[in-house]
Each structure stands twice: as structure tokens, then as C-alpha cells.
Design brief:
The complex is a heterodimer of chains A (about 400) and B (about 170). Chain A is mostly helical and about 400 residues long. Chain A is built from 13 helices and 4 strands. Chain A is about 65% helix and about 5% strand. In chain A, α2 crosses α9 and α7 runs antiparallel to α13 (about 365-395). Chain B has helices at about 1-20, 25-45, 50-75, 85-110, 130-135, 140-165. In chain B, α1 (about 1-20) runs antiparallel to α2 and α2 (about 25-45) runs antiparallel to α3.
């Protein structure tokens, strides 16, 4: 098929999936935080608050867009644009699944496979400092400036351990193409233990994975490292002066960055789309089983309704779940969708960890943040890299 | 297509360089310099040096310029006013500058070895493996010396910062 047409279709599909995930990730975060704090979370718009993201978008679009009179106009407008663009770009090189054959066309679940894919993502994420620094500076507000400065210092500092842990994986795989890195983790030890890089023999990257996750919390400015927007010190940090869609751009960028780092962790350490146990032990039937279980639970509650209307609504949902489970039993559908399922479930678990940590842990003090990365995280990442290099040289 | 892309990024690079000199605010100048770095990275990419392009963005645009912007923001440097210069500087400066450029280009044309012109897509030694092999075989000594130089710079920074603390 025409390369241009194929790329356009793939880009459209990826953009729709990514933006929907972004919108609903925000709802999931509010729901999970709510349940951690023993309250239901958003509940009013749609059933169980499911239409809340749409309501939020309408609210943010129709709000007044303020431009402070003393702000540096071009950079004040450029900063949110830069933030959201740089946050969405990394998806271009990410592989979500293996080869796919659809209507006689063979393609990959990936927009493009760069041979410097890992470096590309590091380069783009190193540029995203500017959006926050410029937002803080151009607002001409002391709180925003302090937030921007903190963000710049923090992101430079945590990029180092992150880069070093990624270098450990590169030593093991000997390639920088993300597709090849995932293919390197394809098989199983002893027939059941996956060859993911956290279990890799002889140089397991489990420590690297933990260091990568810690630094990615700081890179995305999330609790416990959310000092750029510490609200009890800096009002709202670098986006104090922003309103309406410009504020929403920073919000979107934060969630897109979360998706990027969790996908990176999945691809680099957790085997990408490879299932945790081999297909001969039935890993291809897990999604169908999950849908079947969901259908059974819904059907049970439909037959024993808590509210009168559940008697009619829940059996319909149960039938839908059964239909999905049946579709997932068709071999060709299974081959196309089961890898995507495993990739999504790993990324979703890591995203849940992000939200979980936000709901349960307090914020660092600024000097603690800096001494933690320079005096602990950086040396440990360095030792991890040295040990990996030694093991690869001895046994690799 | 290659020539079109080359022209776009070359013009962007030159435009950003001029803007960097002309801007009166330090931050605007720094951002223009980032534009130059980014366009240069794109030029490397067009020539087939994908590793060099990525390293250019990570090292120059992503690390060094961030520190520049950081320091400018920290010092809160304001807009520079035009200094009172004699009119002669303007009248003499432009012809001397043009003369300097022409002498420079003449010298480059005379001294530079006559090689075949650069062709797009002809160079394939720009991937990570090739750069790494060169770095650790042919250019090992300069590479190690550079790391020693960086170490000395770090030690110097620590000594200077220590003195201030006491």
C-alpha cells in the first residue's frame, strides 16, 4: 500500500488512542485518588462520572483566557504549545506490538522504527525542560519563576540517573531501536521465566528498573517530587498565571509524559508486548477469560439487582462482555490484539503505581530532593552501569 | 526534497544566528541559539549522521543551553539598552565586516582540499555503532584526554564553590 496513506491512517489511529487515553487517565486518577481517600470521586456527569473528561474539556475551552499585561507575550504563548507538542512526539517511535497483517497489508504497531529510537526519546524529553522554564520566566511572577527554576534544576539532575539506567539496557541489547530491544526479550528461561530485562541473565536490570521509575517520577514532576508546583509554597508553580486551554495544555503534557515514561519502562525493562508466561501455557486466552469473568460478575448483579434499573442495564453489559470474549477467541483477532493487551496492561499497572504513590506519599523538601539524586541515585545508577558492563564483558 | 529540507534548515539556522546577535534580551538570545542548535541537528540528520544529530540535541540544546537559560533566569538579567557608541562604529563596521567575510571565504576556498561535493544520503557511517568504533579505536586518546579535562573542570567548580561557602 502507499506509504503515505498507510502512515496517515496509522498516525490518525495512534493520535485518537493517545488522546482518549490522556483524557480518561485524568478521570482514572481522580477516581483512584478518591477511593484511596474513601470518597467516590467524580460521580455526577454520566454514569459513575464517565463523561467527566468531556465536561472538563468544555469547561476549559469556554473559560476566559487571561494574558498578564507584564508577561513576555511570545514566550508566554509558546510555552504551553511547546509543552504539549514535545510531550506527544515520543509516541512516534514507540512500538506497541509486533507485525500486524490486516486486509493483506503487513505493517507494525509502530509509526516508525528509528535506529536511534531511545536517543530520540531522550532528546525530546530533554527539550521539554524549556516549556516549563519558559512558562515560569515569561509569566513575570515570582512564584512562577521559582517554580520554573526548580523544574529546570530538577529535570537536569534526574535526567542523569535516567540516562545511565537506560544505558545499562543498551549494553545488554546492543541496539537502540526500540523494536529490536523488545524482540531481545522475546523468549523464556526454563520454558516459563520471561527473558524480560529485569530478569535478564547474567546481568538483570531490576535495580535499573527501580532507579528508572524513581527518576521518571521526578521527570514528570509528580508527587513525591512535584516541587515545581508545590501549592503550599508556590501557589501553583510555573503555571500560576495560566488559564483556560493554556493551563489545560500543561495538564495534558503532564499526563502525556506519564504515558511516555511508563511505556518506556515497559519497553525497556518489562518485555514490551511479550506475555509473562508462554502461549503454550495459555497466555493468549487471558484477555478472553478476563472479559468472561467481567461478564459473569455483571450478569450476577443483573439477576440480583441492587436498583430496579440494574435488572435491564446490567444483562446488556454482560452480553457485550461475552461477545468481546468470544471475539477474542478467534485466532486471527487473538494474534493481532493479545500483544496490545499485554503492553497496555503493563503500562496501566505502572500508571496505577504513579497514582497510588500520589495518593499515599508526602512531598520531599527541596534540598532533600537534590541531595537524594546527586548523593544516592546517581552513584547507584553509575554502579549499576559498571556492574552491567562487567557482567556483559565477562559472560555476554 | 533533500535540497528543499537543507535550504529550510540552513535558512533557519542563519536566521536564528542573526536573531541571537540582534536580540536585546538575554533569554530571547538564548532561545535563538537553541534554534541554531536544533537546525544544525536537522542538517546532520539530512547528511546521514543520526547519532550525531541526537547527541547534538541532547548535549547542546538539552543540557548546555538549559544551564544558560537557568543562569539567566537566576540572575534575572533584564533587557540590555543600546550603548552610546560613536557613529563611526556603524559606518566603518559594516564594510570591514564584509571585507573580513570575503577574505575568510577566499582563504577557505584556497586552503580547503579539493574534494567531491557532499551528496545527500551518500554517508552511512553515522550510526551509533560506527561512531562508537571510531571513538574507541582511532580517537581513543583525544576521547580520554577530554574526559580528564571535564574532570578537572568539575574539580575546579567544586573548589570555587567551597571557597564561597566558608
Amino acid at each position: 500500500m502507499n506509504f503515505l496513506l498507510l502512515s496517515t491512517i496509522k498516525t490518525a489511529v495512534f493520535a485518537v488512542i493517545l488522546l482518549t487515553t490522556l483524557a480518561y487517565l485524568q478521570l482514572v486518577e481522580r477516581k483512584v485518588l478518591g477511593h484511596i481517600q474513601r470518597r467516590p470521586g467524580p460521580y455526577r456527569v454520566g454514569p459513575h462520572g464517565l463523561l467527566q473528561p468531556l465536561a472538563d474539556v468544555i469547561k476549559l475551552l469556554t473559560k476566559e483566557d487571561l494574558l498578564p499585561s507584564a508577561a513576555d507575550r511570545p514566550f508566554f504563548i509558546l510555552a504551553p504549545f511547546l509543552a504539549v507538542t514535545l510531550a506527544l512526539i515520543p509516541v512516534v517511535v514507540m512500538p506497541f506490538g509486533p507485525e500486524l497483517r490486516l486486509f493483506g497489508v503487513e505493517t507494525r504497531w509502530q509509526l516508525t522504527d528509528l535506529n536511534v529510537g531511545v536517543l530520540f526519546i531522550l532528546a525530546v524529553s530533554s527539550l521539554s525542560v524549556y516549556s516549563i522554564a519558559l512558562a515560569g520566566w515569561s509569566s513575570n511572577n515570582k512564584y512562577a519563576l521559582l517554580g520554573g527554576l526548580r523544574a529546570a534544576a530538577q529535570m537536569i539532575s534526574y535526567e542523569l540517573p535516567m540516562g545511565l539506567t537506560v544505558a545499562g539496557v543498551l549494553l545488554v541489547t546492543n541496539t537502540m531501536s526500540l523494536h529490536d530491544i523488545v524482540m531481545h526479550q522475546a523468549d523464556y528461561y526454563f520454558g516459563f521465566l520471561p527473558r524480560w530485562h529485569i530478569f535478564q541473565f547474567p546481568s538483570p536490570q531490576a535495580i535499573g528498573f527501580i532507579l528508572f521509575m524513581i527518576s521518571s517520577f521526578a521527570e514528570t514532576n509528580r508527587i513525591p517530587f512535584d516541587l515545581p508546583e508545590a501549592e503550599n509554597e508556590l501557589v501553583a508553580g510555573f503555571h500560576t498565571e495560566y488559564s483556560s486551554m493554556k493551563f489545560a495544555s500543561f495538564f495534558m503534557a503532564e499526563y502525556a509524559n506519564m504515558i511516555t515514561v511508563t511505556s518506556m519502562a515497559t519497553l525497556l525493562f518489562l518485555g514490551g508486548w511479550h506475555p509473562p508466561f508462554p502461549a503454550s501455557m495459555g497466555s493468549s486466552f487471558v484477555p478472553a477469560l478476563l472479559f468472561l469473568a467481567a461478564g459473569l460478575v455483571t450478569l450476577y448483579h443483573g439477576l440480583n439487582p441492587a436498583r430496579p434499573r440494574d435488572r435491564y442495564s446490567l444483562p446488556v453489559f454482560a452480553m457485550a462482555f461475552f461477545a468481546l470474549a468470544a471475539v477474542l477467541l478467534i485466532p486471527s483477532v487473538q494474534a493481532a490484539l493479545v500483544p496490545i493487551f499485554w503492553f497496555s496492561i503493563k503500562t496501566a499497572l505502572l500508571l496505577f503505581t504513579f497514582i497510588w504513590v500520589r495518593g499515599t506519599s508526602p512531598r520531599f523538601r527541596y534540598d532533600q530532593l537534590m541531595s537524594f539524586t546527586w548523593k544516592f541515585l546517581f552513584p547507584v545508577a553509575m554502579l549499576n552501569l559498571l556492574a552491567t558492563g562487567l557482567l556483559v564483558a565477562l559472560y555476554g | 526534497m533533500d535540497v528543499f529540507l537543507f535550504l529550510v534548515f540552513a535558512l533557519t539556522a542563519v536566521g536564528c544566528a542573526i536573531s541571537m546577535v540582534v536580540q536585546t534580551h538575554p533569554i530571547h538570545g538564548a532561545i535563538s541559539l537553541i534554534g541554531v542548535m536544533g537546525s544544525l541537528a536537522m542538517l546532520y540528520l539530512i547528511l546521514g549522521g543520526e547519532f550525531i544529530a541526537a547527541a547534538q540535541v541532547i548535549v547542546y540544546a538539552g543540557a548546555i543551553m538549559v544551564l544558560f537559560v537557568f543562569v539567566i533566569m537566576l540572575l534575572n538579567a533584564g533587557r540590555e539598552g543600546a550603548s552610546r557608541q560613536p557613529r563611526m562604529v556603524l559606518w566603518l563596521g559594516i564594510p570591514v565586516f564584509i571585507g573580513f567575510l570575503s577574505v575568510l571565504s577566499y582563504l577557505v576556498q584556497r586552503v580547503a582540499p579539493k574534494s567531491e561535493p557532499v551528496r545527500f544520503g551518500a554517508f552511512t557511517g553515522g550510526n551509533t555503532h560506527a561512531v562508537g568504533m571510531k571513538l574507541f579505536t582511532d580517537y581513543l586518546l583525544p576521547f580520554e584526554l577530554t574526559s580528564a579535562l571535564v574532570l578537572i573542570a568539575i574539580l575546579g567548580a567544586i573548589v570555587l564553590a567551597r571557597k564561597e561557602l566558608d
